Every structure is written in structure tokens, then in C-alpha cells.
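=== RUN LOG ===
request id: a7f3
mode: sequence -> structure
chains: 1
length: 156
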Amino acid sequence: MSNRHRAVWIDLGAVIDGTAIIEPGAKIEAGVTIARNVRICAGAVIEHDTTVSAGAQIDSNVRIGHSSHIGVGVRIESGAEIGPGATLAARVRIERDAKIGSGVDVAEDAIVGGGSLVKSGVRVGARARVRSGARIASGQNIPSDAHASTSIREIL
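=== RESULT ===
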């Protein structure tokens, strides 16, 4: 189906800056705030009470859970899922098909590789890199500047 025949779904109570670009097929729920120069691609879903800060890019078919905070200049690639209450600080990159659990805190300039699974309550430090396909257990802490390859235990 062509995007030109799909509507953008924006719930009442969403606040969207006039410079934001929201493609057809995106869904924005109530209580969402979208700042200036944000791009939200087709098929993305942003659940209620989430903030998307200036310059963020949300690619196609991304789901962001309720009450999350997406920082300035964050990039979330296609197919990624962000759990409820997650915080992604400035300039974080979440690569294609990565899964971020509820309450995860990703500090500035960190990268979570494609296909990774970061379970609930994990903290990813500043400039840390979670390699593609890694599995990080709930409640773990990845220190700043660290690299996690296949599990949190490899960096301890």
C-alpha cells in the first residue's frame, strides 16, 4: 500500500512543533510532546506521555513505549522497540531491530547495535557500545566507554 493513502494518526492532547515531519502511517498517542526538527517515519508508534526532543529521528516501524524520554539528536532505526519508561539521552543511536526493555537508561552518545536485546532496568553508560546481537540481562550496568559483545559478563 502506498504511503500517500495512509493517514497520520495523532491523538488529542499531543503537542507537536510545527517543524516536525510526521510521515503517513505514523501514530502519536495522547500526552506525547514532539519538539522542533523531529522526523517520525511511516509506521512508527509513539505511546502516551512520551517526549521526543529536538532533532530526533524515529525510523519506520519503531515502537516507543509510554512515558519514555527520547533525547536531543537521538536516532532510532527501523524495527526497533523501546520499552515503557525508557530514557535515551542526547545523541544515542539504537540500531535496526534492537529491543530496549522498560526503564532502561541509555546515556549520551551510546550505541545499541542491531538485533540486540537490552532487558528491563539496564543502564548503558555514556559512549558505551552494545554490539549487534548482544543480550544484556535485567538490572545490569554497562560502564561508560565499555563494549558489550554477547553478554554483560564479557565486560566485567
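=== NOTES ===
Confidence is low (pLDDT under 50) at residues 152-156.
The first strand starts at residue 9 and ends at 10.
=== END ===
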